[in-house]
């Protein structure tokens, strides 16, 4: 069998002019994935901590209902900015809001049992 075409493809792929941009693209993709996973983990971690914090203090603050969510978003925005270095966008705020609601609902269900 003639594998000249395979040798040609290997030469093209390993050519420095092709290899450098390919490595840059792969590295950029990896960094992007890592960054998204890091942001997601930060959202999950600080959301849980803030929900617990608010549940412990909301009575002394005199807040309830939607004011608790407003307080959550205020604290979340500050903590997110501390850890990421920028204010959260709408996607991050929505993820945090959903996470907070889920945590509160789970707590209520477990208290009913």
Give a brief description:
The protein is an all-alpha fold and 113 residues long. The protein has 4 helices and no strands.
Question: Could you tell me the mean pLDDT?
Answer: 87
Please report the total strand number as a whole number: 0
Structural class: mainly alpha
Question: How is the main sheet built?
Answer: none
What's the total helix number?
4
N- and C-termini, Cα separation: 71 Å
What would you report as the Rg, rounded to the nearest angstrom?
A: 24 Å
Strand content: under 5%
Q: Could you state the order of secondary-structure elements as H and E?
A: HHHH
Could you explain the architecture of this structure?
- Helices cover 88% and strands 0% of the residues.
- By secondary structure, the protein is mostly helical.
- The protein is elongated and about 80 Å long.
Summarize the topology.
Elements: H1 4-14, H2 16-61, H3 66-84, H4 90-112
Helix pairs in contact: 2-3, 2-4, 3-4
List keywords for this structure.
113 residues; mainly alpha
